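Feature request, filed as a ticket because there's no other form

It would be nice if the structure record came with a short human-readable summary line next to the tokens. Right now we just get the raw output. Example of a typical job, pasted below so the devs can see what we mean:
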Amino acid sequence: MSSDDLEIRSVDLADLPWFVAVRNSVRSFLHDPSEFSISEAETWFQATKPDFRIISQGNQAVGYFRLSIDATNPLCLWVGADIDPKFQGSGIGRAAYEKFLPDFAREFESSEFRLRVLPSNVRAIGLYLSLGFRTLSAATTVSPDGRSVLVTDYTMTRLAKPKTPNELGDDPVEFISKSLPTARK
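Raw output as currently delivered:
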């Protein structure tokens, strides 16, 4: 998949039916797995005016980015992408991150990117590690019986201008990168 084929533009109200369909279809990989209606999405969209960008290949929408500036560090941009399940596994996610992260760094004057990912989303973690993201923290909760600690979330970070892959080293949470057969170092 060539990133030359990809374009990006802001989501608008007319995109919401497509957006809601894709978002609902990937909700098990999201931190809020709720299913939303188009009318709920319209209310949310008009009230919050989120910075979401549609990724398209030719005239076909294939996914979207979620973008927000960190509340405590204006040089840090939170990013996330969801790819329409019809196009997952085709390399679009990797190509989109590779093509658009430099553009986002310039647009937002960001020196760092961060994202959150669920531990069960092994495929995404492998992608992020191969793109130079490293685990910054793991959010944990104690099970209701108090007998075990559950990892509920990883926060990963990457410099906007990363070092070469050979200089990155292992992921600080080594068991993540070592347990992923798809992760490249």
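Something like this underneath would help us a lot:
Helices lie at 16-25, 38-48, 92-108, 122-130, 165-168, 174-178.
The longest strand covers residues 149-159.
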